[in-house]
Amino acid sequence: MNIVDLYERAIIRLKKIFLKKVIINGNVYWNYFGRYYPDYLNKGNAKSFIEDRALKYCEGYGIDVGAGNWALKGAIPIDNDKDLNAFNLNAFKDESLDYVFSSHCLEHLDDWQKALLLWIKKIKKHGILFLYLPHPSMLLWRPLSPWVGKNHKHILYPSKILGFLSDNQMEIIEYASDADLYWSYYIAGRKK
Questions:
Q1: What is the DSSP string of 150-165?
Q2: pLDDT digit string (tens) for 16-40?
Q3: How far apart are CA 130 and CA 20, in angstroms?
Q4: Which CATH architecture does the domain made up of 44-191 adopt?
Q5: What H or E segment, with its residue span, contains residue 103?
Q6: 3-state secondary structure of 120
Q7: 3-state class (DSSP) for residue 167
Q8: What is the mean pLDDT of residues 73-78?
């Protein structure tokens, strides 16, 4: 084990000291550096908090990248398989998809820009890219936090994602940059 790994493990252990489980009115919360986060934020299925809005845009033939056990209704689930994943969508022709949906996936990828460029390439003209991402204010989802450790690689600020999409053939048609009940935000874009 190298010095960087030891340092990262020490940071995670230290941060766990500041994570306290608290029961308030019968509900479980986690206090982390003075902020209270509901327990459901650590259970998965983020998609359920945005599905109704996403389905207004994600119609036709499309994929859910990073679906895990909770694929968007009607979407082809794409997980981290060696033959089909966020960086390998060879099963789909370029400009063949009506939409690409992704919930809480980009922050796990070393090169999120490369993945987004591939996803955009697979979308038809006027097709939809719908992203649901952890809000930067959610401290327990930041890299090296007690909940995610090294599984999250980035803090993806709305302005950075909006700018990247605008610079890469996407017209932003709707977004909410404030944190919702799942401490997340969304962006819907249409390919030019």
A1: TS------HHHHHHHH
A2: 788 899 999 999 999 998 999 999 9
A3: 34
A4: 3-Layer(aba) Sandwich (3.40)
A5: strand 97-103
A6: helix
A7: coil
A8: 97
